[in-house]
Specification:
Length: 475
């Protein structure tokens, strides 16, 4: 049994009624799981109106009331993680343990927002005259429009929803049509937690049509998007034309710098397992490997050896380490990366093709000896492909790591304090992991620089994008 598929507008779940719809496909079996209704223009107008009406009262709700609802949602995430996770495995493909882990970790995100929303403080500025009082207050910005992708369908949606709702905003969200069950589950949880009608609205449809309509609407005051750089730039341009602030969590191309003073086998093993998480469809996935000359051969051999033993299969099978790619278009893109790498001197050390079975399964792939101008070293692969290259000079490897327009995550492995210090200062990224994988926690900010985005989610920064500053001076 999969999930119901509907719109959620003004506190009601809406489906059928001759709306257009699209099939939702299981990427492991290629079976149709259900039909997802598309929002008509009338549905979008209703979502906009109800979000605006709800904002008039929700903006005056107390932080305690908002916090209570977010806490209830956190508990519902814990209680329903297995059921929700199973549906994510069905429509997104990731192994069940990863899907359940995603949902459970989101109970922490909801709890964090429940705590932090009680601490949205203003300040008092000493005045120049004793009869004057000057205060700064932070108010919810208004109706938000959010667009979230399919790779972490639960996490990416709930973080935006908790930030908007915790700040006192209302929100219309268009989730990923390929993998909609996670966002449906979120709608049901907020409904059950007693969120007033209209505060959260869920719509589906043709992404470009929905985003265009919502961003242009004068009702929408803020735009938040997680997805690819080209789409992010389009939406940012449209939001800019209408003077609407944005939060953009876009793609990355994370450099991995492995210095010669580490336990090579241990690091190679950790990186291999991290690489295949969610079949590499992760914006912070390690994607450009720079391995010091002195340890290159040992690293490569261990890395390839671990990946060669990864079980690729249906995410519901407990033996599976890595599931399928989420949809067909990713398979074709993987092949393009491999073909281009071969043209740029690359050698396939492992994999390099789709698996010969039903479903969008791609082999864990390692490419060596390719040049820095190959597609794989310059564009985000967003799949289970790892290019390995060498370096022997810190200044030079930093130049190479910083040479792309992306700046999301990075990974450094060294036991030399000076190296760790220099490299973490010089990498042009939003997040530096040194000797472990430690980003995307509720209490830490997550975001990129350069083409990888604008703004942070999580941490004490999490409400910044959903608030406006008002100065009040009184005599
Ligand atoms: P895509 O760019 O077509 O879509 C990415 C996401 O954006 C999807 O969820 C899609 O529904 C949505 N989208 C696309 N056009 C939109 C529009 N005009 N308005 C609103 N939403 C829109 O690419 P794809 O094939 O689905 O995914 C592959 C690429 O997307 C990857 O290369 C990766 O860079 C990027 N991506 C990034 C993240 C992330 O976490 N930053 C997540 C998913 C995908």
């Amino acid at each position: 049994m999969y999930t119901d598929l509907s719109l959620y507008i003004n506190g009601e779940f809406l489906s059928g009624n001759n709306r257009k719809s699209q099939p939702v496909i299981n990427p492991s079996t290629l079976e149709t799981l259900g039909n997802l209704p598309h929002a008509s223009q009338a549905d979008l107008d209703l979502a906009l109106q109800s979000a605006q009406t709800a904002f008039e009262s929700w903006r005056h709700s107390s932080p305690i009331e908002r916090s209570d609802i977010l806490r209830k949602v956190a508990q519902l995430c814990r209680d329903n993680a297995t059921k929700i996770g199973r549906n994510i495995t069905l429509d997104q493909g990731k192994p069940l343990a990863e899907a359940v882990g995603e949902v459970k970790s989101c109970s922490d995100h909801a709890d964090w927002h429940a705590e932090e929303c009680r601490r949205i403080y203003g300040r008092v500025i000493p005045a120049r005259h004793p009869a004057v009082r000057q205060i700064v207050v932070r108010e919810p910005i208004g109706v938000c429009a959010a667009f979230t992708p399919w790779n972490f369908p639960f996490n990416q949606a709930i973080r935006k929803i908790c930030a908007a709702i915790g700040a006192g905003c209302t929100i219309i969200i268009k989730g990923p049509e390929d993998s909609p069950s996670a966002v449906m589950a979120i709608a049901h949880m907020f409904h059950e937690a007693g969120l007033p009608k209209g505060v959260l609205n869920i719509v589906w449809g043709v992404p470009s049509e929905i985003s265009d309509y919502l961003i242009r609407s004068p009702i929408v005051r803020k735009v938040s998007f997680t997805g690819s750089v080209p789409v992010g730039k389009q939406l940012a341009a449209l939001a800019g034309a209408h003077m609407k602030p944005i939060t953009m969590e876009l793609g990355g191309h994370s450099p991995v710098l492995v210095f010669p003073d580490v336990d090579v086998k241990r690091v190679a093993k950790q990186l291999a397992f991290f690489k295949v998480r969610n079949a590499g469809q992760v914006c912070i996935s390690p994607t450009r490997f720079y391995i010091h000359d002195d340890i290159y051969a040992d690293f490569r051999d261990e890395f390839v050896n671990i990946l060669a033993n990864i079980n690729v299969g249906d995410g519901l099978d407990p033996e599976t380490d890595m599931g399928p790619l989420a949809h067909e278009r990713r398979v074709g893109t993987m092949d393009q990366f491999v073909q281009d790498a071969l043209k740029h001197g690359g050698k396939v050390a492992l994999g390099g093709s789709k698996l010969d079975k039903k479903g969008y399964f791609y082999s864990p792939t390692v490419i060596t000896d390719l040049s820095d101008d190959s597609m794989l070293m310059t564009e985000e692969p967003f799949g289970p492909i790892a290019p390995l290259t060498r370096f022997n000079n810190t200044t030079d490897v930093l130049r190479r790591a910083n040479s792309l327009p992306f700046g999301l995550a990075s990974y450094v492995f060294t036991n030399n304090l000076q190296t760790a210090h220099t490299v973490s200062n010089e990498l042009q990224v939003g997040m530096v992991n040194i000797n472990h994988f430690g980003v995307a926690l509720p209490e830490t900010p997550f975001g990129g620089v350069k083409d990888s985005g604008i703004g942070s989610e999580g941490g004490s920064e999490t409400f910044d994008g959903y608030l406006v500053t008002k100065f009040i001076t009184q005599r």
